[in-house]
Structures are given as structure tokens and as C-alpha cells.
Amino acid sequence: MNAAGLMVVELVISRLRSGARAADYLELARSLRTWLATRPGFVSCELYVGEPTFAHRVVWRTFEDAQKAARALAETEIGWGLSELVQPEPQSFLGRRIDEP
Known about the structure:
Elements: E1 8-15, H1 22-36, E2 42-50, E3 53-60, H2 63-73, H3 77-85, E4 91-96
Antiparallel strand pairs: 1-3, 1-4, 2-3
Helix pairs in contact: 1-3
């Protein structure tokens, strides 16, 4: 957690490439969840499905933890496999919850 005691939420929205199979994506998503759980600062991961779009909601203790994991993922077979299945430059958001409207 950061100094304020708040965790960081990462939202990644991915759209399958033309011809990519949802079943292949889901298989990699399971591997991704297992891999994420080994990373420092990992808190939780949820996957939302809206074919052909998928959204991962990952909670981290700090921005640094999230950024380090993203860099490390890019160097793994899981990361390479996901990049083959989804359109380039998925939408991503990384931020903290605020209690103000």
C-alpha cells in the first residue's frame, strides 16, 4: 500500500484480433492469473468477459509493483501469447480510489 494506505487498481481492456479464439485467450488468462499471483505487491485479479472484449481488473499494493509486473510480463511467453491474440495497444488505466465524488 502507498503512504495513504490505498491500493492501486489496474484495468486492462483487450479486444481479440480478427480470427483469434476466445478459448485461447481464456487459457492464457488462467496462466496470467497464476503468474500475477507470484509477483510482489499483487493483491487480486478479476477477469470480465464481453466477447470479443475482455477486461482484467488487477489490484496492486503500489504503482511501482504494477509497473514492474507489466515490464516483466512483456518478457514472458504469456505476454507474447496475449500480444498475438489481442489488438495492439489495449486500453489501460492505472489509478487509486478516491472517497470524494
